[in-house]
Structure formats: structure tokens, C-alpha cells
Design a protein that fits this description.
single chain; 2 domains; 5 strands; binds FE2/S2 (inorganic) cluster; Glutaredoxin; five-stranded mixed sheet; 11% strand; alpha+beta
Length: 187
């Protein structure tokens, strides 16, 4: 792998492990076969959460896990199941970066844009990603090859700039290592 765990401080390792748990199951178009949008399946997922306390975020994560996104058509389904307004559900979906409205491309590059990575050259890495991949942050390239997203701290702060490529961590993204990531994202 491009980075080694023993290069990380104890704090970084803990935070990284936490973030990996948080992120698992909500993205990675490569390791999970996503289901094509189906309102019946979405309704079934929503029913599983109905009547539970604090069910909205788990429900949205389950939709992400199933479909790779929370499409607009899922909002009224979730709202009805949880007895919330559509505006409340829409507000949560649009507030959190974790929830995307459309499926990601074939490859997903999530570059850390938090402070520690910025101090280690994150802005240059971000500009290089946009130029080389031909897509802006928050967007999927027109050919569906790659989605580029910002992410905020992976717990790899001492090894920044850091990113996830299809859910796998990559660190010290400068020079050749950054170019290798960009090449892999375009295979
Ligand atoms: S700021 Fe922590 S991994 Fe980027």
C-alpha cells in the first residue's frame, strides 16, 4: 500500500480507524454492487427504520449502501416512514457531505480538504486532481469514469495530503504518488 500504518502516530491511527468505520458501508462503488434505484426497495428500507428514535441518519446510510446515493425520489419515502417533513429530510441530505444525490462514477477520489492536509500541500493536490481528472470537486466526469469529492479529515493528518481512492486510504499525495493515484482513477 502507498502508506504504512507504522508511519502514523497513535492519535492518527485511532482517528483513522474511527473514520474508516464511519465511512464503511456508505460508499465504495468498487467493492459493493449497487442496486439500481427502485422505490419498492427504498420503501422496504424505510419501513425497517419506522418508529425508531433517531432513525433518519441510519436510514439514509442504508439507502446510500443500497443505491450508492440518496436520490430526490427517496426523500418523500423517508419522510413518510419517519413522520417527518420532506424539508427536514432534504435538509439533512444536503447538509452532510456523506450523502450524494446521484451515484458516484466508476472511481471515487475523496481528497482531504481539512486544515492539516492543506498545510501539507492540499491546495496544490486539489488543483492537480481537478486539472488531471477533468472534473471539479463535488462532480462526476461526464463519461462516468471518476467522481471527485472533498472529505474532511481521515485521521491521516501527519501523512497528508491524504485521500481515499474507492474507499482505500492513500497518503503523502505529492509528486509521483499523486500521479499514481490519478492514473489509477482513470483506469
Ligand atoms: S486533515 Fe486529517 S487527514 Fe487531512
Amino acid at each position: 500500500m502507498w502508506w504504512r500504518g507504522n508511519q502514523l502516530s497513535g492519535h492518527c491511527r485511532s482517528l483513522f480507524a474511527f473514520n474508516r468505520r464511519r465511512l464503511s458501508g456508505i460508499r465504495n462503488p468498487v467493492t459493493k454492487t449497487l442496486t439500481k434505484w427502485d422505490p419498492e426497495i427504498a420503501a422496504e428500507i424505510a419501513r425497517r427504520h419506522a418508529g425508531k428514535e433517531g432513525a433518519l441518519l441510519p436510514l439514509l446510510h442504508d439507502l446510500m449502501h443500497e443505491f450508492g446515493c440518496v436520490p430526490d425520489a427517496a426523500v418523500p419515502i423517508a419522510a413518510e416512514a419517519l413522520n417527518l417533513s420532506r424539508a427536514e429530510v432534504h435538509g439533512v441530505v444536503s447538509f452532510y457531505h456523506d450523502f450524494r444525490r446521484e451515484p458516484a462514477g466508476k472511481h471515487l477520489v475523496q481528497l482531504c480538504r481539512a486544515e492539516a492536509c492543506q498545510a501539507r500541500g492540499g491546495d496544490a493536490a486539489a488543483a492537480r486532481c481537478e486539472a488531471a481528472l477533468g472534473v471539479a470537486f463535488g462532480e462526476t466526469r461526464a463519461d462516468g469514469q471518476v467522481t471527485l469529492e472533498p472529505i474532511y479529515c481521515l485521521g491521516l493528518c501527519a501523512s497528508g495530503p491524504a485521500a481515499l481512492l474507492d474507499g482505500a486510504p492513500v497518503a503523502r499525495l505529492k509528486g509521483e504518488r499523486l500521479e499514481r493515484l490519478l492514473a489509477e482513477a482513470q483506469r
